[in-house]
Each structure stands twice: as C-alpha cells, then as structure tokens.
Design a protein that fits this description.
This protein has a domain at 68-136: Dehydroquinase, class II (Rossmann fold), CATH 3.40.50. The protein has helices at 19-22, 27-40, 53-62, 83-92, 130-146; strands at 3-7, 45-49, 70-74, 96-100, 122-125. The chain has 5 helices and 5 strands; from the N terminus they run E-H-H-E-H-E-H-E-E-H. It is globular, with a radius of gyration of 14 Å. The chain is an alpha/beta fold and 147 residues long. The protein has a 5-stranded parallel sheet with strand order 2-1-3-4-5, covered by helices on one side. Helix 2 runs parallel beside helix 5. The protein binds 1,3,4-trihydroxy-5-OXO-cyclohexanecarboxylic acid (DQA). 1,3,4-trihydroxy-5-OXO-cyclohexanecarboxylic acid (DQA) is lined by residues 10, 74, 76-77, 79, 100-102, 104, 111. Its EC number is 4.2.1.10.
Length: 147
C-alpha cells in the first residue's frame, strides 16, 4: 500500500450534506475516482473515513509500519480543532496534503485556521471534490520523483 486517503468527520455524508457547499458527489464516488487514478499510476490506494479523532490518530500512527508513502487528508472540522492530528503527523513524519472541498477562506472566520497547514506539504481548498484528484496528481508526481 502506498497512498492513504483519509476523510474526517461528516464526510461520510457527502452528496447529502449541504450540497450547495460540498456538491452532489458521494464519498464512494470520490474514493472510487481517486483510487482509480492512483492505481492507474501503479500505486495501491487505501481510503479511510472516520468521525472519531482518535481513530484518525491511530490510522496515522499505523502509517509508520504499513508502507504508506503519502497521505491525502480532508480532516473536516478537525482541521480547525485538532492538535492531536497535527501531533500524529509530526510523530510519524509521513508527508501529507490537506484537501478541503470548499474554499474555507471564503466562509466563517473559524474555518480560516488550520492546525495542519503549516506541517502539510501542500493545501488545496475550494476546488470541490476535484481537489482530491488534484492532490493525487501531485502525489503521483512526487512518488515518481522519489523512485
Ligand atoms: C471541509 C471544511 C471544514 O471547515 C468542514 O468542517 C468540513 C469540510 C471541506 O472539505 O471543505 O467538514 O474540510
């Protein structure tokens, strides 16, 4: 396994949750698209979603031993609250891209701060669910450069 795609809380409701902000695609659509993209480039892709902060922390810890080379994460609301997820990435040192479907800078003030952005390789926000594919394209390029 080489690329891990993590989605945080409420992202299991994509497609039904505030479609005016997050669009009509479901999480299954997003995961299928990004998995196909990664596999076409010769990578294995695992998708993980949880509404629980500790489960996400545990999954990040597991990357230290499972061969994950890059993480794409939409941390959902934990973006704005979770020192624990930030510390988990710092602890294992796995590189990651942060993705937001909506442009968090155009929304409420509290969404402008991320506990993760300054330790992420890069951040994408506001490109809709295409943001996952843009991040995957970047990750594929990065891993090709590493090979
Ligand atoms: C989000 C933005 C967050 O502020 C919000 O809490 C989410 C989704 C996005 O993808 O735009 O759950 O990460």
């Amino acid at each position: 396994m080489s690329i891990l795609v993590i989605n945080g809380p409420n992202l299991n409701l994509l497609g039904v949750r505030e479609p005016g902000i997050y669009g009509a695609a479901t999480l299954a659509d997003v995961e299928a698209s990004v998995t196909e993209q990664g596999e076409r480039a010769g990578h294995s892709v695992e998708c993980f979603q949880s509404n629980h902060e500790g489960a996400i922390v545990d999954r990040i810890h597991a990357t230290a031993a499972d061969g994950t080379r890059f993480v794409i994460i939409n941390p959902g609301a934990f973006t704005h609250t979770s020192v624990a997820i930030r510390d988990a990435f710092a602890a294992v040192g796995v590189p990651f891209c942060e993705v937001h479907i909506s442009n968090v800078h155009k929304r409420e003030e509290f969404r402008r701060h991320s506990y993760l952005s300054d330790v992420a390789v890069g951040v994408l926000a506001g490109f809709g669910v295409r943001g996952y594919n843009l991040a995957m394209a970047f990750v594929i390029e990065q891993l090709a450069g590493d090979a």
